[in-house]
Design brief:
Strand order of the largest sheet: 3-2-1-4-16
Helix content: 25-40%
CATH topology of the largest domain: Fumarate Reductase Iron-sulfur Protein, Chain B, domain 2
Distance between the termini: 64 Å
Number of strands: 16
CATH architecture of the largest domain: Orthogonal Bundle
CATH superfamily of the largest domain: Alpha-helical ferredoxin
Shape: globular
Radius of gyration: 24 Å
Number of helices: 19
CATH class of the largest domain: Mainly Alpha
Length: 500
C-alpha cells in the first residue's frame, strides 16, 4: 500500500517557500486582490509511510513565516463574518492581523479573551463547517478549502506561547465561600471551572475515569491531539486552585442531588458527555473481535494499549480490520488500527464520500496512510469461526435515495446484493448516546427521548442550581460547541452565586 501514499513537500521545503514569499511581500501595501492571490499554506505533516508506524502527531504546525504568510491572506473584513461561525465568538480578524504583523503575544492575548483551549481547538475543531465556512476569502475564490486557515493559525499561536514557557495562570478573585461541583472533566467542564474559579468560588471536578480530560483524553488519538497539551490545561486549573477528584462516579459513588443537599455545594454543572456507544443490533455483534469504537479508542488512548510492552490493558490485535461508520470517530479508529499493526484497514460506509460527516482532512490523512474505503456498503451480520471469533461479515450494497432529516441522501439497500467479506476484527463507529446513569438516579431531571438533559437558554436544568452543557445536552458534538455551552453555564452560575 505504501506505493500509493501521496508524497507531500517536506516541512523544510514548505518553510523555505514561505520565507521567500514573506520576504517578497514585506513592506508592500497589499490590496485585497494581492491578498487573494497569495496561495493557501499547506500544513506540514509527517511522511505518510513513516507515521503509519508511530503514534506521534501527524500535523506538525506552521513555522513563523508560514503563519505570517497565511495570515496575510485575511482581508480583515469590516463585518467580520467568520466570527458568527465561532461558538465562543473569538475576535478572529483581530488575532490574525496580529499574526500577520508578527505580534504573536498580542495574538495569544486576543485568543485567551474567549477560549481556554486554543491549542486543542486549533487541532480538532471542524473549522471548515464553522468559522472558515463564512470566510470572505473562501467565498471570493469560490472554494471553502481556500478560506484562511483559521484553525491552523490558532494552533500556531497557542503552540508558540506554550513553547515560550510563559505562564498564563488566570487571576483568581478573593474566596467567596461558595462551592461549585462539576461532573465530568471534558471541554465544557474545563471552561466552567476556569470561569467560575476566576470569580473566587471553590470548584471541584468529579471525574469517573482515573485521569481527567474527558473525550479529549479517551476519544481523540495522540496523533491528532497530544495528551500533554490536555494535561497542561488541567495543570493550569489545578494551579488556579481547582480540585479534581478522579474515580468518582456521580450516580453511583454519590447521587447528584446529594452534592447539593448533603455536601453543601451551591451549584452543579453536569458535563458528562456522550459516552454510551451505539450498536447496530445485528447478528454476531457480540462475537469476540467486535468492538465499539468507544472501547477501542479508550484502550488505545487513555490506557495507551499501543505500548504493548507496558500497557495496563490488552488490545485485540488483528490482521484485517473493518471499521463501520463515516465520522471522525471512524477515522480515528481506522487510523489507530493502522498504527496497531493491522495489515489492512477497511472503512465501510453506507453512503458516498460526499455524505461522510468526517472532516475532509481526516479522510485525506486516512487515505494517505493506506486505509481502504468501501462506499455504498454496510454490514448486515458478523459471522464466527469455530471459537466464536469474528472472521467474516456479510455486507449489503446500497444506492442513494431521497434526502433524510439530516439533508443527506438516504441509503437504500439493493435487494439480493449480499456478499461475504473476510475480516478478523470489526469496530462499530456509528456514534454515541448520553450515559443514562445520572438521569436514572436523579428524580425530576428532565431529559429528551434520546436521554439528553433539557436546559433553558441559560443552561439551567429542570432542577434549581443544576446546570448542564456539552454533549450531555447537544448529543455528540464538537469541542468548541461544548466550550460555548460551558461559557454560558459559567455566566449563569456566577450570576446565581452573586445574588445568594
Amino acid at each position: 500500500m505504501s506505493k500509493d501514499l501521496i508524497r507531500h513537500k517536506t516541512p523544510e521545503e514548505l518553510a523555505g517557500e514561505a520565507s521567500e514569499l514573506l520576504s517578497s511581500l514585506k513592506g508592500r501595501e497589499l490590496s485585497a486582490k494581492d491578498r487573494l492571490a497569495i496561495p493557501p499554506r499547506e500544513m506540514p505533516a509527517q511522511d505518510p509511510a513513516a507515521r503509519r508506524k508511530n503514534i506521534n502527531e501527524v500535523a506538525l504546525g506552521y513555522s513563523e513565516a508560514e503563519a505570517m504568510v497565511e495570515a496575510l491572506r485575511c482581508l480583515d473584513c469590516k463585518n467580520k463574518p467568520c466570527i458568527k461561525g465561532c461558538p465562543v465568538a473569538i475576535d478572529i480578524p483581530g488575532f490574525i492581523t496580529a499574526v500577520a504583523d508578527g505580534r504573536f503575544e498580542d495574538a495569544g492575548s486576543i485568543l485567551k479573551r474567549n477560549t481556554l483551549l486554543p491549542a486543542v481547538c486549533g487541532r480538532v475543531c471542524p473549522q471548515e463547517t464553522q468559522c472558515q465556512m463564512f470566510c470572505t476569502v473562501g467565498k471570493a475564490l469560490k472554494d471553502i478549502d481556500k478560506s484562511v486557515s483559521i484553525g491552523r493559525l490558532e494552533r500556531f499561536v497557542a503552540d508558540r506561547e506554550r513553547a515560550s514557557g510563559v505562564s498564563n495562570i488566570p487571576e483568581v478573585k478573593p474566596d467567596t465561600g461558595k462551592k461549585v461541583a462539576l461532573i465530568g472533566s471534558g471541554p465544557a467542564s474545563l471552561v466552567v471551572a476556569a470561569d467560575v474559579r476566576r470569580e473566587g468560588h471553590s470548584v471541584t471536578i468529579f471525574e469517573a475515569f482515573h485521569k481527567p480530560g474527558g473525550v479529549m483524553l479517551y476519544g481523540i488519538p495522540e496523533f491528532r491531539l497530544p495528551k500533554k497539551i490536555v494535561q497542561e490545561e488541567i495543570d493550569t486549573l489545578v494551579a488556579m486552585g481547582v480540585e479534581i477528584r478522579t474515580n468518582f462516579v456521580v450516580g453511583r459513588t454519590r447521587k447528584l442531588t446529594d452534592l447539593l443537599d448533603k455536601d453543601g455545594y451551591d451549584a452543579i454543572f453536569v458535563g458528562t458527555g456522550a459516552g454510551l456507544p451505539k450498536f447496530m443490533n445485528m447478528p454476531g455483534e457480540n462475537l469476540v473481535g467486535v468492538f465499539s469504537a468507544n472501547e477501542y479508542l479508550t484502550r488505545a488512548n487513555l490506557m495507551r494499549a499501543y505500548e504493548t510492552d507496558r500497557a495496563h490493558t490488552p488490545i485485540y490485535m488483528s490482521r484485517r480490520t473493518a471499521v463501520l461508520g463515516g465520522g471522525n470517530v471512524a477515522m480515528d479508529a481506522a487510523r489507530t488500527a493502522v498504527r496497531l499493526g493491522s495489515e489492512e484497514v477497511h472503512v465501510i460506509y453506507r453512503r458516498t464520500e460526499k455524505e461522510m460527516p468526517a472532516r475532509v482532512e481526516e479522510v485525506a490523512h486516512a487515505k494517505e496512510e493506506g486505509v481502504i474505503f468501501h462506499f455504498l456498503e454496510n454490514v448486515k451480520r458478523c459471522l464466527p469461526d469455530e471459537k466464536d471469533r469474528v472472521n467474516r461479515v456479510e455486507c449489503l450494497r446500497y444506492e442513494l435515495g431521497e434526502p433524510d432529516d439530516s439533508g443527506r441522501r438516504r441509503p437504500v439497500e439493493i435487494k439480493g446484493s449480499e456478499f461475504i467479506f473476510e475480516v478478523d476484527a470489526v469496530i462499530v463507529a456509528i456514534g454515541n448516546d448520553s450515559n443514562p446513569l445520572i438521569k436514572q438516579t436523579t428524580p425530576g431531571l428532565e431529559c429528551n427521548k434520546w436521554g439528553n438533559i433539557i436546559v433553558d437558554e441559560n443552561q439551567k436544568t429542570s432542577i434549581d442550581r443544576i446546570y448542564a452543557g456539552g454533549d450531555i445536552v447537544l448529543g455528540a458534538a464538537t469541542v468548541i460547541l461544548a466550550m460555548g455551552e460551558g461559557r454560558k453555564a459559567a455566566k449563569s452560575i456566577n450570576e446565581l452565586l452573586a445574588k445568594s
